[in-house]
Predict the structure.
Amino acid sequence: MIIALTGFMASGKTTFGRAAAERIGWDFVDLDQVVEARYGTPAEIFSACGEAFFRELETRLLEEVLQSERNTVLALGGGTVLRDENLRLLRQRSAVLWLDTAYDIILSELGNADRPLLHGRSPAQIRALYDERRPRYAAVADFVFPVVTDDYEQVITDLAAAIAAYPGRGRKG
C-alpha cells in the first residue's frame, strides 16, 4: 500500500512523512528527492529548463515510484497534483492524504527553504497560490489530516497513527 502525502510546499510532507513512516516501519520516498538524485534539484531544473520540463520528469518518476509493492509513505511535490496524468496514476496505485497545514505554519517554514515557485513572489502572491491550490488538494484527497500545531512530535505521532489505521488498500486501476 502506498500513502501519498500531498499539500502545499512546506506543509511537512517530507519531515512528518519520513518520521511517521519510520514509526510504523514503512518505506519512505520523497518524489522531489528522487528527481534530485537523477536530474538535479527542482530549483536547478526550473531555472535551466522551466516548470513544464520539471513536471514531465516528475510524472515519469511518479509512475516509477508507484510501482512499489511495499508499504510506502510517498511525499509528493506541492505541485504534483496539478497534472491530470499524475492524478490518474495516484488514483490507480495509492491513497492520497492531504496534509492540510495551517497557512501561518507554512509561512514560518517557507523562510528556511529554496522554493523555485516562490522566487520574486510577495507574501500576498504566496497566499494566493496557497488558496488557489487548496481545492485541488481537497479534490484528490482520500483523507485529510489537519496540521494546526507546530508541535512536531504530536503531529508525527498522530500522522503515524492515521496512516497505520487507514482502512483502504489504495485504489487499484
Observations:
- The chain is about 55% helix and 15% strand.
- The first helix runs from residue 13 to 24.
- The beta strands are 2-6, 27-30, 72-75, 95-101, 143-147.
